[in-house]
Amino acid sequence: MSDPIDDKELGPVPSQNGPAYDVVFGEITEDGPNYRNVGFLGTVILMMKTQIGLGVLAIPTAFDTLGMVPGIICLVAIACITTWSDYMIGVFKLQHREVYGIDDAGALLLGKTGRVILSLAFCLYWIFVSGSGILGISIGLNAVSSHGACTAAFSAVAAILGFIFCSVRTLGRITWLAWVGLPCILTSVIIVTVAVGIQDRPAAAPAPEVGSDWVSDWKVVGNPSFTQGMTAVCNLIFAFSGTPGFFAIVSEMRNPRKYTSALLFCQAGVTIVYAIIGGVVYDYCGSYVSSPALGSAGGTVKKIAYGFALPGLIVTTTIVSHIPAKYIFVHLLRGSRHLNSNTVKHWVVWLSCTLSVIVIAYIIASTIPVFDSLVSLIGALLGTLMCFQPMGGMWLYDNWNKGRKSSKFWLPMVCWSIFVIVLGSFFTIAGTYACVVGIKQSYDESGGSPAFSCADNSNSS
């Protein structure tokens, strides 16, 4: 039995004894799905699983490019900025109950233009992330099976699994998957972290000279080119870019006022995990770290690590596919009785949304089959736009007219909000340029991997 909905947090209720009413989902009754059924712990685990997934697998590679100290500094800086952005989502939702997605916020900020731009960016972002999830699952299946089948077939299996699980209609019912997926992905990276620490050398490192031990070539400070540096920073941004998904999470919370507490638990845990795992794996592997990082220990350890990681990767793909599908679904049926009742139209539209998201994600995973390149491109082109600029605009929208007399922090916060907008715009433009140049250089040097290839994709480094 689901816990009762806190009507005070839902907005106006039609009558004292009538059904609960939500500004976004309408009347919530026993005859349809309960969209407002995510508790505090469920919120924390959904947030952490939205963040900790594919991004953690690229952090050691980013440290290799930037160097250990600049890498950790950039990681913490991005964590602080995105935590503020995440906090603004909760504040904005409580002040504007009609907001469901980032496009609703965009409509308040910039009218129809803001809605169109952010809705397209939101859908593209999550579908690209879903594509990277499908790619990650195909890499895992290749690893555990020693390339037992064509990679394109493994990608299709990943897409089918993603469609089945993401078609669960509410985040409240997906929460249990997150409880399974998060420990699995953490266990896998811990296995690799321990393994690279006790092995003689990483899998990709050459054998040392006779009579000598292998010594890691990790760097305190790296010397990357502009393209390499921006690509690495964009990988770190991607690791924290679950931000736009928090709109959907807070919208399905039973008590949105607990959002900030859940957020702080999430971000503190995520940042600590990223710093420890990224730092330790890079310290032992140096420039021979693999991407995704689970391949760094090689051989048997890689199979074991991916064996544990696969449930986590499937759950990641489930959540990041469910979010855009739910977003499209809600906007298609919002204001209609079909949104919250089990009608034929309800099910047809819902399954059409989930299937469309998965099919497009599968095509993306098959046409950009290089994990690091796909992750950095998502982080640059769409991740920054989802995590930086809108949140600065949201604070200005709610507080600009209050003026300096409202608080001694008003002017510093205006400057901070503008800084976040400018910084996000810089990373969007410069990061996308750097990632495209980097992908082109990679293809020029190695010839790249063809689309819908059957080749083993689990041995990249």
From TrEMBL:
Keyword Protein biosynthesis: no
GO cellular component: membrane
Stretches assigned to the Amino acid transporter transmembrane domain: 40-433
Broad class of where this protein is predominantly found: membrane
Intracellular or extracellular location(s): Membrane
Membrane topology of this protein: Multi-pass membrane protein
Keywords of the record: Membrane, Transmembrane, Transmembrane helix
Any one GO molecular function term: L-amino acid transmembrane transporter activity
Transmembrane residue ranges: 38-59, 65-87, 116-139, 145-165, 177-198, 229-250, 262-284, 304-325, 346-368, 374-397, 409-434
InterPro entries assigned: AA_transpt_TM
Highest taxon of the lineage: Eukaryota
Family assignment from sequence similarity: Belongs to the amino acid/polyamine transporter 2 family.
Official protein name in the record: Amino acid transporter transmembrane domain-containing protein
Organism lineage string: Eukaryota, Fungi, Dikarya, Ascomycota, Pezizomycotina
